[in-house]
Predict the 3D structure of the following.
Amino acid sequence: MPPKTRRERKAEVAVSTTGGSTRATQSGPVSSSTVPAQQAPPVTLDYKKLNPKTTHYEFGGPIGAFLMITILPCVVILFAFGCDNIGYTPFHRLWAIASDLIAGRFEWEFLWSLVTSWKAVALLWYAGFVAQLATFSIAMPGDTVEGTRLRDGTRLSYKVNALSAVQTMTTMTLMSVRGQGLKLPLWVHANFAHIAVASVIFSFIVSIGVYVYSFFGKRLLSLGGNTGNHIYDFMIGHELNPRIGNFDLKFFTELRPGLVGWVVLNICMALKQYVDLGRVTNSMILVVLFQAWYVFDALWNETSVLTTMDITSDGFGFMLAFGNFCWVPMMYCLQARYLADFPHDLNIWHVCAVIILQCVGYRIFRGANSQKNTFRNNPEDPSVKDLTYIQTKSGTRLITSGWWGMSRHINYFGDWLMALSWCLACGFDSIIPYFYSIYFLILLVHRQRRDDSKCKEKYGEDWDKYCEIVKYRIVPGVY
Ligand code: NDP
């Protein structure tokens, strides 16, 4: 059977509005391009009832939220300034500062000189990059798809055009390279730390903006972000879907600045290596290609983001804004940065190991996500019709064989294997490029627990039954 086109797959998912899939699963409550832009809620809606107070905390409550708001930006800045061609030693440098502070030797002028040496033009570059993405997202045509039904009975519509926006941006970038050569990518490499600071500032501006905005007018708030505690609500996200006209800030932020920014930074690092060496090392090629593949996969399946908990239930606040404007691009490009500063080639066995790990990881990740997606959209499809499942009282089915019979989040395992393969491409001279796989492991375990408790709440004893059949959470036979 010939592979289905994107349009065919979208038409297929249009029949299902039960959702239940994720960013990488292609499914989603998609409809045709005739969907009205945004259905206005009936005027009689009681927003007090629609926005009940949140009574439980996640992420350690207000203290955890405060720590996330303060520590995570510091981690980004630490890795930005603490890693350069002298060494990838952020923790050594932090320790040197801490011991100077303890011993009373710390020179405060040094800190001040760091602050005053920050190049504000980096903020201009960063804001220009985001503005370009936003402009193309608004200006380029795209299919209109519907999101899941909201508590007020409406469904928002979204313009899906990430790939065409990126294509246009790439063409314009290539034209600028023809005119100016590699000046800009080299500038980006040289000023990476300044850009990282700019992205932190930008994330705070956006987070504060949407938080303040959420108090004006009648707005649908996130069920988890309406505690009344400003620090917590600011971090987790107060308003569910802040929009400027039809431009949905959360949907735009979710995939574009973070993922596209990650690839852009990677390419700048590869070009820096090319200028230095006159060629690009095989390790850099592997990292840039595999990560670009991962991003392409996410953008290609853009509609699936509409059913993730990020879009359906989390509010838009610091967590998502900082995560996508700052953390993803600045921290995920660590391997390419490392290879630009410490270029090396891998031997053939090492190359094979990286490729095999990436392919195995991708096979699991895509296989599991697509299997769930196909099953949810068309259980009679020949590829899934023999799968066993539990019919839940809420109407949806939980698969108990195939990929989803191996563990409850086998897709996370595949995702993590890919992350590990990118780190392995950096060799064994420094542990710092492995930061990504360590952090990602923590994120996935935390996400699995969050998702399992959401499913337990949604499915009750059906979920217990499912957990009895599928015992492992992520890694079959291990965890
Ligand atoms: P999943 O793709 O694992 O989806 C979880 C949902 O699937 C559940 O809430 C449930 O939803 C449904 N489900 C669970 N078990 C079954 C089953 N047995 N049969 C059918 N449906 C089931 O979640 P995520 O959104 O967390 O992840 C999506 C992808 O994105 C993953 O591959 C992940 O690795 C990746 N990811 C990457 C990140 C990054 O930074 N690179 C960050 C986060 C995620 P329902 O209520 O519909 O039943």
About this structure: DSSP finds 20 helices and eight strands in the chain.
